Amino acid sequence: MQILIRPGDELPIYRQIMSQITEALAVGRLQPGEKLPSHRELAEELVIAPLTVKKAYDELESLGFLETQRGRGTFVCSRLPKLKMADQREQIEAAARKLLSLAYMVGVDLGGVVEILRKAEDELLHGSHSAASRAAG
Question: Would you say residue 27 has pLDDT above 90?
Fold first, then answer.
């Protein structure tokens, strides 16, 4: 699994790590029981402080996505938390309103938003990032 950090992003780096790990879980690029790199290894790879990765791992562990096995490492939980659609629908709707508001403010119509969503879905499902998204970071 590849994690891309965007230092200028409004989202703190540990949240970027959390987001990319949960996205990978959502689309099946990370599987239950799969071992993750240690927080030190990932920090070295990303050229960030080990405590930043540890904070992301700790938060994901408290949410039930990861588990640390002493002396063995950090793994995706074999039994992931089940998210209820009813509990998440309100958040999805709020995110949709925010996305549409932002798009309309910069002149992107609904068709453009759908195109952006399709591209984002492709990136989620295939783990690819375009040259443009890499250049942005």
Answer: no
